[in-house]
Design a protein that fits this description.
The chain is an alpha/beta fold. Helices cover 57% and strands 10% of the residues. The chain is built from 36 helices and 18 strands.
Length: 953
Amino acid sequence: MFPYRKFFFIVFIFLNCITQGYGQRKEDMHPLYIYLNNELHENEQFAAFEKQYPRLLAPGSHPGFVDSIYTYGLLADYYNKYGYLDRADSIIEIMDHMTSSAHEAKDPAAANYEEMLLSTRALNLAYKGDYHGSIEKLNARKTTPRSPSQVNQWLGEIYFRGGQYARAERYLAQSIDSFKQTDLINRWPVDAYVFSANALIKLGRLPQALDRLNKAKYYKTWVKKYRQRFLYNYYNAWIDYLLAVGSQRLVVEPYYQKLTSLTAMQAMPQLILRKAEYESLFGDKNKVIPLLNQSLNITLKNQSSNISLLSNIHLKLAAEYQVLDSTSLAKMHISQAIRLFTGIPDYKDWPFVSWQSIYNRMDVLAALEMYFRFSKIEISVSSDTTALIDHALLAKWAMDGILAERSKFLIGDDKSALVGYNQKIIEQGIYTNTRLFKLTQNPQYLHALFEFIESNKSLNLAEEIVRVNTFNKSYATTNYETDKIDSLKNILVSLDRRKIYEPNNVNLISRIANIHDSLDRWTNQLPFLNNESTQNLQLFKTYSLHEVLHSLTKNQSILEFYQGLDMIYILLMQTNKLDIKAIPRSKDLDEQIQYYHLALTAPIHTDYSFNPRALDSLYQVSATRLFQVLIGDWESILRGQILIIPDGNFHLIPFASLLIQKTTSSNFKEMPYWVCNHAINYEHSSSIWMQLNRMPSDHALQSVLAMAPFASQQLKESQYELEQISRYTLSKSIFNHQATKQLFCQIAPDYKILHLATHAFSNTYDGSSSSVSFYRTDTFLPTTDSRGGHEVILDSFSYLLDVRDVRNLNLQSDMVVLSACESGVGEWKEGEGLISLARGFLSAGAKSVVQTLWQVHDKANALLMSNFYKQLKNGETKGEALRKAQLIYIRDQEIGRRQSHPFYWAGLVIQGNNLPLEKNNHPIAMFLGLLLLTLLILYILRIRKNRHITVHE
């Protein structure tokens, strides 16, 4: 059979070579054009090229005008790439003159010259650090008739240099897609594959990066133009990938040897920088600083305006001097790097620079994070308030930079790149303001400290709510794009669930990563999504400490936690009291938290048959010690309701079962629990609490949806639980096979209270996979084979409602009760918080969620829920209703002492809005009763008076 595909492919290559100019004789081409295509001088040293420089630019060196401007563009691009920006400027001036002449002569090719000039100027500006100007030039070129693939690649490269890796990857992917529809052997997509791989490596999407590099490897044999430059980028990308996956020296070294053997690149400061990195990882560490200084000197000599490269070298030098404990030299190089970005030499003036004027903010934040790290010891021993204030202002400026970055990336992966800087910078601001408060007792520093805590915590959940609500809104108003997104989401949910059972399946992991990539790309194609999210985010105001204090009553207190890398901070807020505790994050404290949690959940692990006295003692000691460390003497000034805003490990601590003082009693009915004194609520942040408490509820108990999918099976007490709830509410109760996921998703948005008495599955590795279980309704497809009839399960997960499903419900609920095991447990994500089922419902629109911190006891939970709804019916707040329900359970004489253990009742906690669900009518009734009684007495007195008058007459 004739190989048609190969035949047409060869014909296509031949035609492409003709159209690309490869059919021209070399003697007819500009010598510089030949050099840059590596067809004559590929093995010559860079010095040889330097000697040719004056001759190659001589007037009349080549008669072909079009070829000349194209050659000048290549030369300017060459100088841009390899660091000779002053020479690139002179080439651009020549190109500008040539383009003007073409316009004056009304040359038909003038538009082509304009395109080349715009592109060359754009890249030149990018290498100088003027990314705004560069993008403006490239967007102007998009209006020209040429293919956008080249422009998209340049935009991708520029965004990459600015640290916006997800946006860079999107433009590069568009460049690749455009190329696939046009030219198969052009150099542009080969470069795009390499730059796209670099962006994906930065984003941590290593499987996709490997795929891009393999595509580049396939196409690299066709590369003729800029061959050595392409190979430089190609080998560099491979080295970055291998280092990212943790490869050893034997794997990395072949690529390093190929990279350093590129003859035309020997004088490049970037290559010397790579040599320094290689020596630092695998070679002689004593060579690192000399190599870095060599790279710095060459850069300063040849391209003093290349901000990105210079700052990178300064930061690497700072890191090396840190290893040598040369803090002063390290800080000097960091200051130099930041000076390059801001143009301001003195660190005291940096906070007055607008972040809007800085494009490469990620590089500045990286430098600031290093600066704070090196200044930590100096700040910790300083008593100079002026220096501390300067440091606090610098931390505030850095935090503003983080907020400026994250506000742009509500959707996409760029936000994840901030996590590394986020906690360290925020903790530095908190620490410095704490020091200032301790030294001066001035409460203004606590106001500044509160802003650091809240700007991080409140935005995490607010952004999630905005993303969900905006996506749901867009889903109702668009067609093709959202259908595609929905399809990808369904596939992703299925694959993620499969991953639970095949965690080491490499192909599955790669496929999930690819689906994530496609989903992000399609989501970001919705034209209004990012803008609308940013506008909606303004609705979630970050409240000031003054506003929070003004909203508190005399019987309310807030304890806000922040878990840093070295310290744990607890901020006390009351109407007339502000204070801060800074507790060292010690091994002993971490152990006490673990012991406390272990002792509380002991009945789960041991069935309380293994050494109960030891476990009781462990509980009493850890509960008392934690109370003394975390609360201590604050207890004497705390009143009524307490709002806990936890962080880190404290999300898993039930504060209600902390012990106020030591006790020798082993009777769990008589222990001094903290819940005896206070109603305790939980919230994600003070600002979210303020936002949710502005949403009052009324007659919510008249609209309750209660489901118990396993009432006749494993959870028989759930039927009693729902029957008791129906005594105090107007509820729709659904049991067993009728309680399906499909029905819940369909009718849940119509109810004000949702109550689920079922099974839940928490996932501490992937919080979004945490799920609640409904009645299983598998779909079967009957088939036949040689052995008879078989049935194949099509949807084995139709009964699980996970966090992803929950976020799409668009709820209007006043309260969601998750009466299931570990519904408040999930994955702790640094910089994001706890990802759990409860948080999923809050993101979907619920005002409050009742959740559990461990596996619940079926019967005890049913009793607690019965009393909880009874108290709600009486008009109590949610926190007070739960407190009274817990105390009733503890003191119930029909419940044994052992069954009064906190395991049975302390795992239930409330997060969110704490307002009552039913108006408390008792005061009104009493007032009306007194009024009627008064009127009755007056009426009787008047009758008697009239009788007395009649008798007298």
